[in-house]
Design brief:
By secondary structure, the chain is of the alpha+beta class. It has a single domain, classed as Outer membrane efflux proteins (OEP), CATH 1.20.1600. It contains ten helices and six strands; from the N terminus they run H-E-H-H-H-E-E-H-H-E-H-H-E-E-H-H. The chain has helices spanning 2-16, 67-73, 76-79, 81-102, 151-217, 223-257, 284-290, 292-313, 358-424, 430-464, and strands at residues 47-48, 107-119, 131-146, 279-280, 318-329, 340-350. The protein has a four-stranded antiparallel beta sheet, covered by helices on one side. A two-stranded parallel ribbon has the order 1-4. Helix 4 (81-102) runs antiparallel to helix 5 (151-217), helix 5 (151-217) runs antiparallel to helix 6 and helix 6 runs parallel beside helix 10 (430-464). The radius of gyration is 38 Å and the shape is elongated.
Length: 471
């Protein structure tokens, strides 16, 4: 029995030391620039220079300093079904990995048999009398694939890399949902700011209409002035209703993201629109390790590389070792040493000598899958760099746009106020007031859109750089 154990141990050791037919693996090179082109000179964009110590925390949305957003983001983890599905896919990948790892070890089964038999007196080679006897046995059997060519080990490597990729998929889905919620939230807050503006505008237009109507009653203004004022007032009210409908859609989207039905979910209107925080974008080289979709794509290359080894191992013989042992007796104490038995073997080898080229085709398929994974990885990297550069360019342009739009809004508001004063004094007709009021409302609306867009771009920049930048 001791020699059997030594023989099995030697075979397992030989299997573990066997060769691997997978190609040597290395991450495909992806040259990265020393800095992002669209960062521009320091101080011209809403971000932190790469050399600063500022970093985004794991809960990156707290950088926006909005308690309502922070509370909503905390609900995604438990309530979002898309995230739950991603976690379930990761659990499946871990299960597959556990299944493939099991093949590294022998499979052992135990069993017991018992029976009573009678043989006839006329059986061949019989001494001339019948016999009745018991047959009892208890034992275990072993089966083990000797992994000389690395099929099992490469399967484990492939499933390990696939599970790691699936884990990064969960991170990517979580980050995408967090960014989607923040984007919807700030779009909704932009509409809140427009709601406040339009309510103020409706009140101002109502006062202007009342003034025009009074002047018309007194014979000072014409009916055309009253109609123009009424048209402006009705248009502002119509826009207020449209904004309310659009806001409701974003509120419903947020409800779905946090796992609630829209019927039981509500967010009060806010009258302020906060400023976007400074985003520490870092340097391009860190993006390759930080973005979960890039890490997942790289892990899929590693899995495809290991699958080449699995396909190539199928072109070589497979070796399987069997073994058994236990106790067998007809009666009495079955577990006595004299009733024991064991067998090491059979040691079998199998090799298909003709399969019509199926195994060679499988190797070609696995190599093509590797090439596909490598191309997908490069595409993911290029897309990531493009997204960061796009956001940086838009952020810098929006800073200048907001500055100019603020100046345009102040000028339009002064023109509106002066036009109304001149109308009250009888120095101009109401057409000047209508034109000035329309221009002021357009300028104020565009300023709010720019400010809301800056918040959305800040959120997308966080997503593009991979979320938290904390070490």
């Amino acid at each position: 029995m001791r020699s059997a154990r030594l023989g099995a141990t030697a075979i397992v050791a030989a299997s573990l030391a066997g060769c691997s037919l997978a190609p040597p693996y290395s991450i495909p090179p992806n040259p990265a620039a020393a800095a992002y082109k669209e960062l521009g000179p320091q101080g011209q964009g809403p971000w932190q220079p790469a050399a600063t110590d500022t970093s985004l925390p794991a809960a990156w949305w707290t950088a926006f300093d909005d308690p309502t957003l922070t509370a909503l983001e905390a609900r995604i983890e438990a309530g979002n079904p898309d995230l739950a599905a991603a976690v379930a896919r990761y659990d499946q990948a871990r299960g597959l990995l556990g299944e493939s790892r099991a093949a590294l070890l022998p499979s052992i089964s135990v069993g017991a048999d018992g029976g009573r038999s009678r043989v006839s007196a006329g059986r061949p080679l019989s001494p001339g009398n019948a016999a009745t006897y018991n047959n009892l046995s208890v034992g275990a059997s072993l089966a083990y694939e000797i992994d000389l060519f690395g099929r099992v080990r490469n399967s484990v490597r492939a499933d390990t890399a696939s599970a790691q990729a699936s884990a990064q998929d969960v991170v990517a889905v979580r980050l995408g949902l967090q960014a989607s919620l923040a984007d919807s939230y700030f779009q909704m807050r932009g509409l809140d700011a427009r709601t406040v503006l339009l309510r103020q505008t409706v009140a101002a237009f109502q006062r202007a209409y009342d003034l025009t109507d009074t002047r018309h009653t007194g014979g000072i203004a014409s009916g055309i002035d009253v109609s123009r004022s009424a048209a402006l007032l009705s248009s502002a009210r119509a826009e207020l209703s449209a904004v309310a409908g659009a806001r409701a859609a974003f509120e419903h989207a947020i409800a779905a993201l946090v796992g609630e039905t829209p019927s039981t979910f509500a967010i009060p209107v806010a009258d302020t629109l906060q400023r976007p925080p400074a985003i520490p974008v870092g340097v391009p080289s860190t993006l390759l390790q930080r973005r979960p979709d890039i890490v997942a794509a790289e892990r899929r290359i590693a899995a495809a590389n290991a699958q080449i080894g699995v396909a190539r191992a199928a072109q070589y013989p497979s070796f399987t070792l069997g073994g058994s042992g236990g106790f067998e007796a007809g009666n009495g104490n079955i577990l006595r040493a004299s009733n024991s038995f064991w067998a090491l073997g059979p040691l079998s080898a199998a090799l298909a000598i003709f399969d019509g080229g199926a195994r060679k085709a499988r190797v070609r398929i696995s190599r093509a899958q590797y090439d596909e994974a490598a191309a997908s990885y490069r595409s993911t990297v290029l897309t990531a760099f493009r997204e960061v550069e796009d956001d940086l360019a838009r952020s810098r342009a929006l800073v200048a746009q907001e500055r100019d739009q603020q100046a345009a809004t102040r000028a339009a508001e002064r023109t509106r106020d002066l036009a109304l004063i001149r109308y009250r004094d009888g120095a101009s007709d109401y057409l000047d007031v209508v034109t000035a009021q329309t221009a002021a409302l357009d300028a104020q609306r565009l300023l709010l859109e720019v400010q809301s867009t800056r918040l959305q771009i800040a959120v997308d920049t966080v997503r593009a750089i991979g979320g938290s930048t904390a070490a």
